Amino acid sequence: GSTSKILPGVEQYEIVYPRKLHTVHKRDVERNKEKKYDDTLEYEIKANGEEVILHLEKNKDLLAKDYTETVYSDDGQQITTSPQIKDHCYYEGYIQDDADSTASISTCTGLSGYFETRGQKYLIEPLGSSDRDEHAVYEYEKLREDEPIKTCGVVNSSWDVHSKYRIGDIFKSSNSPEMKAYLKAKKYLEVYIVADNTMYKKYNQDVETVRQRIFGIVNYINTVYKAINIYVALIGLEIWTDNDKCLLSRTAGFTLDSFSKWRNSDLLKRKRNDNAQLITGYDFEGTTIGLAFLKSICSDVYSAGIIQDHSRNEIAVGATMAHEMGHNLGMSHDTKACICNAKVCIMTDTVSSIIPKLFSSCSLQDFEKYMLNDMPKCLTNIPDINTIVAPPTCGNGFVEKGEECDCGTAEECTNPCCNPETCKLTAGSKCAHGECCENCQYKAAGTVCRAVKDECDLPEMCTGYSGNCPSDRFRMNGHPCNEGEGFCYMGNCPTREQQCKAAFGPRATEGAASCYRMNERGVYYGYCKKKSGSHVPCKRKDIMCGKLFCTGGQEMPTYGSLVTFESCKASFPRDGEGDLGMILNGTKCGDGMVCSNGECVPAEDVFRSSDCSAKCPGHAVCDHELQCQCEEGWAPPTCDSSSAATSFAIIAVVLVILTVTIIAAALLIYFRVFKKSRQTRRGPGATNQVFVDQEQGEHPGLAIPAQKMNDKKLLLPVPPPQENKPQLRS
């Protein structure tokens, strides 16, 4: 019942004593001998006076396989470890007999976390130190809101990581097989979380306390994002135990900018990640509690967000981090036009006393649109099993060493090709996953599994002995593209015109030739290279390979700051940023010439691709790594036999031609017989030229075309050859 004990920030709560129910199966006993925390748990607890049974299953996606922790010694020395965390106390689950229920609970020191049942959200936290001691259970609405309302830091008006004009959009359609496959694919977001020095001090300089809080936050975020088929794994935790590694302040915009630069210049050089989030003890100015860049996931510079540790409850902070990550994933704030199947949804712009867990209709549309337009590759990169240092875990959705497949837990698995208990293929199955796996069997060699996206791409085709589609391959570097205006380079067709549209919008065009004389000056707005911090001027022959100059379009560039003179405009970076306003490597700078590291050099010196395809067997061409790749319609590895689809097409053509030939022959015979019979009946009229002319006029040209078709040779068709600063959101 109610209690008079003081629980900070809570108006009223119940005292309950959870009762642990026995759930360990016999087959799990040996495996669980060394485990402190069971894989599955059941507790009977009271919620609003009603007994409910809480089913919990360990969150196997909580930590990435190459998870690391970094702290610092008193003298600033970086200490990074790869803890083999085989056991942890973070669970997901549901309430028995409630299909719409959910739970995110830690059992480290008693039960702590969040659960929802019968449409009501509850929080539970221990008042003792074990799951047998008394606990407080309360409705989230019972939290007191003594503080000012908490909101977004920056309105939806800043820069997007990509311009509205996107090269290649014309090649993309949500109806294409590639788009459908990408949307359907399970996505993995490996996030790196940094706790700053104020956060460390806030929790009494106790690394374990900070770690448990971060794990609880990620555990909640995982339950949120699994609803849209994204599995969030913590790939690294860093605690700034001595001092902050970049300048931070109460100004959220400054802090986000500083943190994102640190991630790009320092963190990514030592630890790969898809996204980084800073959690800080700073109280941001105004009502801001979080800030992030929009549409920036996978970006080295902008895939980042910052969160204020604004609540004593880790679930509330987790909801804020889920919100900021939503911005990184292309989601804007909810409006009144959005449909939300709850009181509030994740992307609401104002934090209330209700914990959001669902995404609104607008968020789902924003997410799908961003995924289709950008197809961020880092989300589908499953770590190489050879790089995994932790032992394999059957049921976590990752195919690891010793596993033939992994379709999740027995409750989650819907794949008939995979046994969820053993992570082995079912009887008769050759595969369970991949674009080249259909009905548990390999697709035929030569079946297209990744279609051509544009003129600098090559199709990928199934090998016939693997369920996975081969890695993405591109046209040979140096292949002409954009009607001869450019060269294919690493799958793109870079031209100055398109780079200007990306920098200043679709109405921008390349600057006049006179603009590029500025590159001979060797200043921040006109140069070719940087050496020891100095801007090196371009030689006259290289001026088309230095700073990019444009005209027209929007006033401000999508990245950096604006510099303009006469009709020429360019961008230059802010302090600490890389210069994104330089002409890209691979851009054509003259006949047979291409830009390479600020110099205009012969294309062959860079691409070294002449006569490469002549060395390839059968119907194969060279790709961007000068390896032979089959043209569409020809099966790997030799490319000298047609694929199943092509063979079917050829057979179909042959049958059509044969059918037409037979019909034509039949008509020829029929009309010859018919004509002869008419001549036999004609009698005297046969010598009258008028009758003869009329007879010939009745059936003009029937026999002659049929005879011509009959004389033609049947030729089978040959398969055809194959041809950024973001918006800030909080």
Task: Give me some keywords for this one.
22% helix; membrane; globular; nine-stranded antiparallel sheet; alpha+beta; eight-stranded mixed sheet; 730 residues; Collagenase (Catalytic Domain); single chain
Description:
A hairpin with a 2-residue loop joins strand 21 and strand 22. This protein has three domains: 14-161 and 174-380, Collagenase (Catalytic Domain); 394-433, no CATH class; 480-607, no CATH class. It starts with 13 loop residues before the first strand and ends with a strand. Mean pLDDT is 79; it is low at 24-33, 152-174, 386-390, 643-651 and 679-724. The radius of gyration is 33 Å and the shape is globular. It has twelve helices and 38 strands. It has 730 residues and is an alpha+beta fold. The protein has a nine-stranded antiparallel sheet with strand order 1-11-10-9-8-7-4-3-2, with helices on one face. It has an eight-stranded mixed sheet with strand order 6-5-14-13-15-17-16-38, with helices on both faces. Helix 4 (207-225) packs across helix 6 (314-328) and helix 10 runs antiparallel to helix 12 (703-711). Residues 391-477 form the Disintegrin domain. The active site is at 324. It is a single-pass type I membrane protein. GO terms for molecular function: metal ion binding; metalloendopeptidase activity. Disulfide bonds join 298-378, 338-362, 340-345, 449-469.
